[in-house]
Design goal:
The protein is of the alpha/beta class. The protein has a single domain, classed as Vaccinia Virus protein VP39 (Rossmann fold, 3-Layer(aba) Sandwich). Helix content is 21%, strand content 26%. A seven-stranded mixed beta sheet has the order 1-6-7-5-4-2-3, with helices on both faces. The longest helix has 14 residues. The protein is globular, with a radius of gyration of 15 Å. The termini are far apart. The relative contact order is 0.18.
Length: 173
């Protein structure tokens, strides 16, 4: 197989926070190993995580901004070295997503996906995206994929590290 990115297969570990969807210690360690202390980091759908200079989540008090993601990205004009995303993806109850003001996952929400891609192309160089798929936004390439196995009969997660390929879209102020 000819690929231009790394792949790592690893056990996901257990979520010990008590909050469904929180990063496991394994996922935290991977993310922190990619970031450096000088990186400006935006974390969308941040949940209970404290990773990121700005953490956006509509419902969690740990977030630095408690706001709808679309509203946030429509107004935020700052440049970020990394954007981390951990959107809701395993939707067992529609009511869970209604807290986020939408009724589908990011993978199924074409409008939100387009707005995110536009935002990424203007304001970041790198994306760390944890989901049940391996998204590939326009003008980005894969650096590495981590296939995270939670065990039991749970669905695999994929942490994608994506890097900008095209500088022409990135707007410098």
């Amino acid at each position: 197989m000819n690929k231009a990115f790394e792949i790592e297969v690893i056990g996901m570990g257990n979520n010990i926070t008590g909050y469904p969807g929180a990063f496991t210690p394994v996922v935290n360690k991977i993310i922190l190993s990619v970031l450096n202390y000088e990186s400006k980091v935006l974390h969308l759908f941040s949940g209970v995580s404290y990773i990121g200079d700005e953490r956006v989540d509509i419902e969690r008090p740990e977030a630095t901004k408690r706001e709808d993601i679309i509203k946030f990205i429509e107004n935020d004009k700052r440049k970020w070295d990394f954007v981390i995303l951990d959107p809701p993806y395993e939707i067992k109850q529609k009511s869970k997503l209604e807290e986020y003001g939408r009724a589908s996952s990011v993978a199924a929400d074409v409008i939100l996906r387009r707005k995110l891609v536009d935002y990424f192309n203007k304001y970041t160089e790198n994306i760390l995206w944890l989901d049940m798929c391996a998204p590939m936004p326009k003008n980005f390439k894969r650096v590495k994929l981590w296939f995270l196995f939670p065990g039991g009969y749970h669905t695999i997660r994929v942490l994608s590290w994506l890097k900008r390929t095209s500088q022409e879209v990135f707007e410098f102020n």
